[in-house]
Amino acid sequence: MSPEQYVQEKAAASGSSFYYAFLFLPPPRRAAITAFYAFCREVDDVVDETQDAGVAATKLAWWRKEVASAFAGQPSHPVMKALMPHTASHDIRLEHLNAVIEGCEMDLQQTRYLDFPGLQRYCHLVAGVVGEVASGIFGRTRPQTVDYAHKLGLAMQLTNIIRDVGDDARRGRIYLPVNELQQFGVKASEILLRSKPWGYSDRFTALMKFQAERAHQLYDEALALLPEVDRAAQKPGLMMANIYRALLVEIERENFQVLHQRIALTPLRKLWIAMKTNWRGR
């Protein structure tokens, strides 16, 4: 299997909303974003699929060395072999990849965030930087497009956090800020129980509505930052934004029943949203 086939299979197997946006890119850009996304999946899977934190830390340390070796001209992993031909043309830098690894390392080091500014630091590493790299691959001409990409990454990561409250609780993690749990009178133990109906309450619903309103506001702020001159090039990002926002609306319709299940859009619906965004350009 070639490196290009490896990253293609890695991206397709994830079933991610990102994959549907990639389909509309010209082949060179699609190859670049597919390789970069496969890298993100590889390091994220280290944390999600490795039960021993010590082993996961060792694997992430290996990825740091692999990234350094790849930028020194000696990639060994198929993901890095597929990615390196695109780094210069799309300004993908060593520090970008190390930031993604650092974000995954945070998952090993802490399971709570005291406040939203602390959570923002994590989101910057695992989503904001990813958005910056992706916007460069899609094509941008204005510095303001980087600001748009970072804010959109934050909005999408908050949507992930809302969707995955139950899955994260199963791993002993709560990304909802501690001071906001206290603000709405929700105990961590109620979330960690996960089971229906014990974790659900009017307090929990109010907490989740607060999270969703903030995510919606960030989507609006991000879209307002996107320069018109870069809108056509950034259509794949807009596809992802529309898919994620549709997911957020679906979670709201389900009254935030996210502790005992993982609410998701069907592949057909994701594809339809991507196609509609491609036609409309927004």
List keywords for this structure.
mainly alpha, 2 domains, Farnesyl Diphosphate Synthase, 282 residues
Explain how this protein is built.
The protein has helices at residues 3-14, 17-22, 27-49, 53-71, 78-87, 94-109, 116-138, 144-163, 165-170, 178-183, 188-193, 202-225, 235-253, 267-280. Helices cover 72% and strands 0% of the residues. It folds into two domains: 1-109, Farnesyl Diphosphate Synthase, CATH 1.10.600; 111-282, Orthogonal Bundle (Farnesyl Diphosphate Synthase). The protein is globular, with a radius of gyration of 19 Å. It is mainly α and 282 residues long. The chain has 14 helices and no strands.
Low-pLDDT regions: none
Helix count equals 14
Indicate the CATH architecture of the largest domain: Orthogonal Bundle
What percent of the residues sit in helical stretches (DSSP H or I)? over 70%
Proportion of β residues? under 5%
Number of strands: 0
Q: What separation lies between the terminal Cα atoms?
A: 37 Å
Radius of gyration over all CA atoms, rounded:
19 Å
Given this structure, which CATH class of the largest domain is correct? Mainly Alpha
Main sheet record: none
| Mean pLDDT reading | 92
Q: Name the CATH superfamily classification of the largest domain.
A: Farnesyl Diphosphate Synthase
* Class of secondary structure makeup: mainly alpha
From the spread of the alpha carbons, the general shape counts as: globular
CATH topology of the largest domain: Farnesyl Diphosphate Synthase
* Helix and strand element order: HHHHHHHHHHHHHH
Overall tally of structural domains? 2
